[in-house]
Amino acid sequence: MLLFVCMSTASAAALVSVKWLARRLIWPEIIAYWSFVSSFEQLSFIIVSFNMKAVHFNTARLGFWTLRQSGVLLIPILIVWFLALAADRAVGRAIKVLAAAAVLALMLLLDYLYCLTGLLTFVNWTFYDSALLFAGLIGISGCFMALYRVIMRRGGIRG
């Protein structure tokens, strides 16, 4: 229950930060990036947990909603924050790399907390696998951002 309350508070804080994002990205970008990351994260969770049976999750209702809250709100907002920072040309390359590492570390910390509280049980899965999955998610999201910005420029929209 405590973890659910903490996740709800973090999700509310994440939603409040959308105002900060709106100063750095235009609304269609925020919606597209958020939707892409959320969809990709949900698909990867389904593949890993149901198809590969590498991760078992707690089937209690509160546990399920805590896990899905992170997949729909927390992980996407972390990556969209990173994408907003990566799109800023005034930010140096070293800071962008540090931000990507920080986002990866936060996502791994979420995984660790879920394992610690019993919401997730790794069967044929390790934290290295999670790190690879999350790093891939960050990388694919960056590629999606680059492609989306090319399409916007062709349409005459400057992001």
What radius of gyration results from the CA coordinates? 16 Å
User: Could you give the distance between the termini?
Assistant: 41 Å
- Helix fraction bin: over 70%
Query: Would you count the extended β strands for me?
Result: 2
The main sheet orders its strands as 1-2
Could you spell the SSE succession in H and E letters?
HHHEHHEH
Beta-strand residue fraction: under 5%
Largest sheet: 2 strands, antiparallel
Number of continuous helical runs: 6
- Arithmetic mean pLDDT: 86
| Overall SS class | mainly alpha
**Total tally of structural domains:** 1
Features:
159 residues; mainly alpha; two-stranded antiparallel sheet; 6 helices; 2 strands; 79% helix; globular
Description:
With 159 residues, this protein is mainly alpha-helical. It has one domain. It is built from six helices and two strands. The mean pLDDT is 86.
Summary?
With 159 residues, the chain is mainly alpha-helical. It contains 6 helices and 2 strands; from the N terminus they run H-H-H-E-H-H-E-H.
